[in-house]
Amino acid sequence: MNVFERIWRAAKANFNAWLERIESPERTLEKSLQQMQKQVNHIREDVIRVVAEEKKLKNQLERNRKEVERWEKNAELALKQDNETLAREALRRKREALEFIQQLNPQWEKQQEIAERLKKEYQALRERIQTAQRKKQHLVLRLQNAESQKRLQNLLTELTDTNVFDRFEQKVLDTESMNAAQSELQAASLDQQFAALGSAPDVSIDLELEALKERMKLNP
């Protein structure tokens, strides 16, 4: 492999990794769910505001209904005391309360309808997000399993590649041959040393040496 090919493969690997990060399905799902959650939060605020307004109108209706009852009793009490002027004022206040109820009741009914619809839509959207979350977890798990299966398959493919095993076996054979050659050389050297230690001395040389010594003594 030349230098340019190595550079190209490295650049291609970096590009693929970068592209995978950009187009990661898990990140895409997570981003979509985050956007949906933001929408839910906005809708929740709208629902709270609408429901609060409905509660406010309902409280005003209840308060004015109580005012009708109270002014009705006040009118009766004034008549019992023969005070028609006060009774008329009580009835006038009662009528004002009734008129206010008649004006306010349609608004409350409309607001109640809107509030109920928004609450249902909000609950439905929450359920959709919860379902999407569960589906996302399931899909991510499937993706992880698929990637694990792919890595395992690649590993099995590499393990079943005969070229890889042939190269490995050849390397083992070469190493074994080198070890055998070294062992053989070491064994030959040891044999030579032991043979030298066990060899018999040359007797004739020793005899000739002794004879020479004797002659030198006789002829000083």
TrEMBL record:
Name the UniProt record assigns to this protein: PspA/IM30 family
Family: Belongs to the PspA/Vipp/IM30 family.
Pfam families in the record: PspA_IM30
Native source species: Candidatus Moduliflexus flocculans
Coiled-coil positions: 26-81, 108-149
Sorted UniProt keywords: Coiled coil
Domain of life (superkingdom): Bacteria
